[in-house]
Amino acid sequence: MTQTAQDTRPLAGMRVIEIGQLLAGPFTGTILGYFGAEVIKVEPPGQGDPIRSWREVRNGTSLWWASLARNKKCVTLDLRNERGRALLRELAGKADVFIENFRPGTMEKWGLGPDTFKADNPGLIYARISGYGQTGPNAPKAGFASVCEAYGGFRYVNGFPGEPPVRPNLSIGDTLAGIHAALGVLLAYIGRQRDGAGQVVDVAIFEAVFNLLEAVIPEYAGAGVIRQPSGSTLTGIVPSNTYRCSDDKLIVIGANTNSMFKRLVEAMGQPAMAEDPRLADNAGRVTHQAEVDGAVQAWTGSLTAAEALAALDAAGVAAGPIYDARDMYEDPHFHARGLFQEVTINGEPLAIPAIVPLLSRTPGRTDFPGPALGSHNADVYGSLLGLDDDALGELREAGVI
User: Fold this and answer.
1) Which among 5, 43, 374, 393 is least buried, having the fewest CB atoms inside 10 angstroms?
2) Which of 174, 276, 388, 389 is flagged as catalytic?
3) For the segment 211-240, what is each residue's pLDDT rounded down to a tens digit?
């Protein structure tokens, strides 16, 4: 990414060093880079981040890589080599933010922990992402998103009663940890404006999903209630469910408020339900959930999904289809919101998702897709560290970069 005086994005001028791999740390860098930061991604020579070769691959590189590594300057560096670690120390000395997602203790073993940089770069914001955090008895344990989603309470409430919990077909824990890390970096960056001091941002994957649990903890602490999995419903709120239509398509209806429930049953042609004192508030509807859901299902089952959604939209009831990737890509609302950005890779176009939130005055953008391994070695090591072609060639021959 070439930054200029015209770059009005809010993080223009911030320099980030991103090390680590897979998803949590890299997604943090993706967010920061999208909104203007110069992100220098450090990868092992020869192989790079495993995501380069994961899932759907085109021309030897994952399609995911185009999105996850957008706007990043990719350099190679062997951190198991002392010369490589020395170069990383030099880079960190010129950075505002340092992101790592290795197992706790790894960076200290390499002489790259946050204390290493306090003297030379006291303003450095050092973001650390791990499964269980940097402290506590579980800190040394390996912690991938799948395990931490379970440990953090998220998996328990997913699925149907009596069945094993299910996982969404996404690494939600990693992505949530990346979002929390980006938030932590920005909070620390604002704090640095006041006193010039950096700090450590400690993000645990299990805590990122723990942050999603809403009332789960106070309900247990205050009432001894352990929230259970509830299939396609939402415990304690009725109606909020998935309903099948006559064309076998599924829609979601969330008529959670009293006024919206009234509009729903009137749209269903059952105004008497709106006057039924048993169903006048959410507590009563929870008690009679089977009756309410049965009536809604009978109605949706008599209509196609398009017919049901048209009636619900006209009545001002919150409802919508369950979309897959094709549905989203073909929906004009997604395009109107600018949620797809086109990049070109080897002359071929590719749509990748925008990064939200959408800012009205200083929006983020995609400058270029994820680049080839080591493609910015000369740029970064030359411009930041003053290494010439001969020095780079020597490092390359030694396997350092």
Assistant:
1) 5
2) 174
3) 999 999 999 999 999 999 999 999 999 999
